[in-house]
Amino acid sequence: MSGRNKSKILLLFLLTFPVSNYYSQEIKNHQLLHEFLIPVLNQDYLGIKDEKQYYYVNRFQNSSASNIRGERVIIDSIMINTTSNLKSKQTYFYDEFGKITSFTLYYWINNMWVNGIQEINQYDSLGNTSSILHKWWTGDQWENDILENFYYDEIGNNILHLNKYWVINKWVNTLRISKTYDKDSNMLTSITESWNDSTWINSSKLTFNYLPNGLKKSQLIEVWNGSYWGNEMFQLLNYDDQLKLILVYSEIWNGNN
Questions:
Q1: What values do phi and psi take at 52, rounded to 5?
Q2: Which residues of 215-227 are buried (b: 16+ CB within 10 A; e: fewer)?
Q3: Burial class (CB in 10 A: 0-12, 13-18, 19+), 243
Q4: Pairing with 227, which of 25, 73, 94, 200 sits 20 to 30 Å away (CA)?
Q5: Tens of pLDDT along 234-257?
Q6: CA-to-CA separations, 79 to 32, 53, 113, 129, in angstroms, rounded
Q7: How far apart are CA 60 and CA 139, in angstroms?
Q8: Higher confidence at residue 95 or residue 217?
Q9: Is the Cβ–Cβ distance between 103 and 116 less than 8 Å?
Q10: Which pLDDT tens digit goes with each residue over 33-90?
């Protein structure tokens, strides 16, 4: 593991809904893949066993980084053994602010670790993720796969997410997600478009409503039918007195627009 300074990795809690196409556009698979929440530990180095998953962690202290305070626990690597005895390993590298700069997944094959996939992250001057480059191992070298670019407004809201695939030695547009927000930075709409040779074509649309306290109240999912947005699903979210989500009520549209 690199000797770079590191910080605690935080878990991103996301609400998913059982729909296809690009309806899961808010969920970044790379975040779900390599961001975990682990408690601050007293030991300097531990291997934590939890359902066949071994988390190898370290501590570090960086008093010079303005956005890091005190000691943090970080993940050096994760060893995963499945019930079918398949093994994989995930390793992480960080910059001086504790942000992940690269992630690599290895597979245990023929008694040796073999490269699998890799992600390389870049950040803007404010610490926002500006790009994620996905690569895969061809057997003798790393090959480009997907490039994600992120764009933000003046207060840090992600307003555009652009995906490209590596095709015959060049990047080709594949997916574009545009988002709008209210004055409190709550997302109001998220529109996904697919690239069709020379133009962007509407695909799906999410519309959100919020309670006065900022909690999400409902979300409407629509799909593009060629000339208009057609209803697909409506979800209503309910919370208890402690503001914890306890129920998601979903309705599938089965009528005319």
A1: 70, 10
A2: ebbebbbbbbeee
A3: exposed
A4: 25
A5: 999 999 999 999 999 999 998 765
A6: 16, 6, 11, 26
A7: 35
A8: 217
A9: no
A10: 333 333 333 333 334 343 344 444 444 433 333 333 344 556 777 788 777 778 888 8
Q: Name, in order, each residue with C-beta under 8 angstroms of 245's C-beta and a sequence gap of 6 or more.
A: 15, 237, 238, 239
Q: Which domains does the chain have, with CATH numbers?
A: 1-152 (2.40.128.720), 177-257 (2.40.128.720)
pTM of the model: 0.71
Q: Does residue 151 contact residue 158 with C-beta atoms inside 8 Å?
A: yes
Q: How far from 9 is each of 4, 44, 60, 68, 76, CA to CA, in Å?
A: 15, 16, 12, 12, 10
Residue that the structure tokens 């962690």 belong to: 57
pLDDT (0 to 100) of residue 96: 84
